[in-house]
Here is the input.
Amino acid sequence: MGKRIISQKRGRGTTTYRAPSFRYAGRAGNIPVDKESEGKITDIIHSQGHSAPLIVVAHGKKTQLSIAPHGVKVGDTVQTSKDAEMKVGNTLPLDSIEEGQLIYNIESKPGDGGKFVRAGGTYARVLTKTKDGVIVQLPSKKKKVFKKNCRATIGIIAGGGRLEKPLLKAGNKYHKSKAKNTLYPRTSAVAMNAVDHPYGGSSSSHKGVVTISPRFASPGRKVGKIRAKRTGRRKGR
Here is the structure.
């Protein structure tokens, strides 16, 4: 009989698939494209919504969150400009970055703040520049062409060794999944024995419950196996 598919579970509206974004520190990205500035790193913080630490950059009276590169510390200055120095933490257009340089937080469109290469310990590499754009090798070894005025940050993202420490027990895996609300596996009811759950057991002809969506389900749950308009033969024929 199977079980409910993920899109059906998502449409139910429970907290199983809902990210606790109210506990996140905030959006981490580049400053607006129409501004060129120099900021000072005032703090390095942890955000459970990111796999890498974040830096708090002060631009005058305003502060902004950005992904922390490996090797920076509180008190360092970072620049955002097309004429900025080729230094770790500085943000420049791809056309101004040297070939072979390691970069991260690459913009998909100029001014969107960064969409590619944002996970802890990852980096991309500028391969070559053409008349159509700049070719960048992503962490997956795939090569992608970006526009020349898309910006990126110099360096490697911090937090690269986080996956080297073993979890050791299922409890640690559970709390790690709960922090970002990623799906933690649970035993399916139909896989249990009959004494453990009403849906369990295989001795009967019908195992579990039907997976057809209810007739008056909400639009989010109305996916997968849709209930038929009618079943059986019509009377009077």
Remarks:
- The mean pLDDT is 87.
- The beta strands are 37-45, 54-59, 62-67, 77-80, 91-93, 102-104, 124-129, 134-137, 143-146, 151-154.
- The two ends are 32 Å apart (CA to CA).
- The CA atoms of residues 7 and 59 lie 43 Å apart.
